[in-house]
Structure formats: C-alpha cells, structure tokens
Design goal:
Length: 394
C-alpha cells in the first residue's frame, strides 16, 4: 500500500509532493538555492498550510517517508515503520504540546539539521504547529532556512502563511490544503476505523471535515455526549442567569474533555519515568531523582493547559456551527445544515430571534476565541459570549 493512500481530499497537494519526492534533478546546489522552483520540482524548504483537521501533519510525514525511502517515492515499508515510530535516524520532529514552541527546542532541531544524512538521500526536519513560534524563535529557524546544509529538507506546518513571519514565508515553498469533502472523510473513517458509514458520515459532518475530530466523534461515545451537552446548553439560554450557568457547564465539559485526553497518557509517562529511574511502582522516590519527576510534572501541566484551550476552542467551533445553521434557516438557505440531529431545535431557535441577533452571537463567539487566546479568564469570556445567545421562549 502506498504512503499516500490514507490521505483524503488532497489530490493536488499529493501530486506536488509525489513529483517532488521523485525529482532526480535535485542536487546539492539546488539545496542552497531559492525555493522558487518549477511546479513539481524539489526544494529545500516547504510550508504546508490548511485548516485544522485537513491533514497537514499526515501529509508532512508521508512526504518525509517518500524522501527517506531509497529511491521509492511511494514509500519503502521499512522507512515507513521508522517514520511512524519517529525513530528514523535522518528524521527530526518538533511537535509541542505547550501553548508555544520554545526557542531552545528550535535551536536543538536546527543543530541536528546540520548533520549529513546517515542512511537516506535526505535529512528531513518537520515542525508541526509552526504558528506557535514567537518572532524571536522564528528568527532562529530563519538562519537555518537561509543557509541550509546540502540534502537537508525542512517541512513546516501551519494553518496559514500569515501565521509565520514574512522572512520565513519568503524562504519556503507553500502548499495549501483544502477542506476535504464530508463524503471523503466519512469513507476514510469507515474504512480505517471500521465504524458504520452512517455514524462516520455524521461524525464527518459535525466535525466539519476535521479528520482527527471526525475519528474521535465516530469512535468515542463520550466525545459525542460532550458535544450534545454543548449544543443543549446553548439552545437552552433564555436569561442572563441561563447564560452564566451555561458558561459553567461548557467550561466543565472542556475540562472533562481535556482530562480524558491527558489523564491516561500522564499516568503512562509517570510509570515509564519511574521504571527508567529504577523505582518500583508505589516505591519511595529518592530525593536525587525528584527533580526529574518535577520536570515531567511541569511538562504535563503545560500540556493540560494547552489541552484545555484546545477543548474550549472545539466548543467554540461547535457553537459556530450551531449558529451558522440557525442563520441559514433564518435566511431561508437550502445549504445542508451541519447539526441535522437537532434540526427541529435549530428551527425553533431561528424563529425566536432575528438574523441580526444571530450575527451578533457569531461575532461574540469569534471575540471569545480571541480573548481566551490572549489569556482572558475562560469563564468570563464564555459568560460574555453566551449573554448574546439569549433567545425569547418559543
């Protein structure tokens, strides 16, 4: 099976990377040149952009596998296993679970990028969520992009080109991904995860073609229940008191979601760390080793903070889809709703407010997303947002 087979809805981007991986004309001289190469040719630095869930990281690793496979742009089986395990000697990966990527992490990756490939044609360096770099951190990366070592290829992933500083954008070749069709995502989830096609289709539609979220909704009943609670809380708002109570319910749902994602992994990491330090489960931790465990705990706290923010953002996206559906009903549009499972309640909500009110709520959700991103208290941001969502009793 080809490495490109599990990527969906991105045929144009796949064609670009497949052609580049098989480009025999890429030389050491090319590696130091500008990324302005003809369509289909190879270059030393790439930027994959696209909306969340479009498969940026999956495409980056598929391209890396093709580059690290010996003369096979379709992907060598051994290289594929090593890339999936992140153990290939010529692969460097930076993916953070914090709110930002630290400058030390980028410096370390830049240093390792200076080595020549050991077994493959190229040395491939991938930065996921490159938009999480500050300007100072980006400038460290810029030096590596301006003077790349021969046979080193950089692949950055970000939602859009605007998320990177202009000097970095000028050093990379951009490939933009599109939002996959609901049917394509549903077919992938049903085939790969073995779920019923109807459930996969609903998950793909409600996730708005976000592949990762579609997988989670299709395979995790608790995730589906939490999404239903989000819509119920918003549709039940009639007064300011309702808005305050709904804000608390949404914050609790986001915290539960974040906990379900991180709790099991945190326990496994702690157990693995204790094992590597030679401490038996339940045993006393020697004072000399406590600092190492404290460092792990601090990393896990930072990951929990990001996971909570991500959970809140997922709630905002679900609410945007809800009020988008309400607005479509109000305007008499024949566009298919996202939330078909609650379409009767959507119609009732549409009848109890004006399109102007719904637009104000959509604006309030966008404002709340920005405020939470700027470290405003999530509870206050949610309350201010939901006060605009009040509807007259039907």
């Amino acid at each position: 099976m080809s490495i490109w087979d599990e990527l969906t809805g991105q045929s144009e981007a796949i064609a670009v990377f497949r052609a580049a991986a098989g480009d025999p004309a890429f030389s050491d001289r090319d590696a130091a040149a500008s990324p302005s190469h003809p369509e289909g040719s190879m270059t030393h630095s790439w930027l994959i952009t696209g909306p969340p869930g479009s498969g940026r990281s999956n495409l980056a690793f598929a391209f890396a596998t093709a580059l690290l496979s010996p003369g096979d742009p379709e992907g060598d089986a051994a290289a594929r296993r090593q890339v999936e395990a992140r153990t290939h000697p010529d692969l460097g990966v930076l993916s953070t679970e914090r709110v930002i990527i630290s400058i030390d992490e980028v410096r370390s990756l830049v240093t390792s990028s200076q080595f020549s490939p050991s077994v493959a044609r190229y040395r491939v360096m991938i930065i996921e969520d490159a938009d999480r770099m500050t300007e100072r951190t980006s400038n460290v990366l810029l030096k590596a992009l301006e003077e790349p070592p021969p046979r080193t290829v950089w692949i950055l992933c970000a939602p859009s080109e605007a998320d990177l500083i202009p000097t970095v954008r000028s050093r990379v070749r951009s490939v933009r991904l599109r939002i996959p069709a609901v049917a394509d995502v549903a077919e992938l989830i049903a085939r790969r995860d073995g779920v019923d096609l109807a459930l996969a289709t609903r998950a793909a539609r409600e996730s708005q073609s976000h592949i990762g979220m579609a997988h989670r909704l299709a395979t995790n009943e608790q995730a589906r229940v939490r999404r239903e609670r989000t819509l119920d809380a918003a549709l039940g708002i009639r007064t300011v008191s309702d808005a305050v109570l709904a804000a608390g319910a949404l914050l609790e749902a986001a915290a539960d979601d974040a906990k379900s994602i991180t709790e099991e992994r945190d326990a496994e990491e702690r157990e693995s760390a204790l094992r590597s330090l030679g401490v038996e489960p339940g045993g006393t931790i020697p004072p000399a080793l406590r600092a190492q465990l404290r460092s792990l705990e601090e990393d896990q706290k930072r990951r929990a903070t990001r996971s909570l923010r991500d959970g809140l953002d997922r709630i905002m996206v679900d609410l945007l889809s809800l009020y988008r559906d309400i607005l479509l009903v109000q305007l008499g549009s024949d566009v298919e709703p996202i939330n078909l499972a609650v379409i009767d309640r959507v119609r009732a909500a549409a009848a109890s407010a004006s399109p102007a009110q719904t637009l104000a709520t959509l604006d309030a959700i966008a404002t709340a997303r920005r405020r939470i991103g700027n470290n405003v208290s999530p509870a206050l941001a949610l309350e201010a947002m939901l006060i605009t969502a009040r509807r007259a009793p039907s």
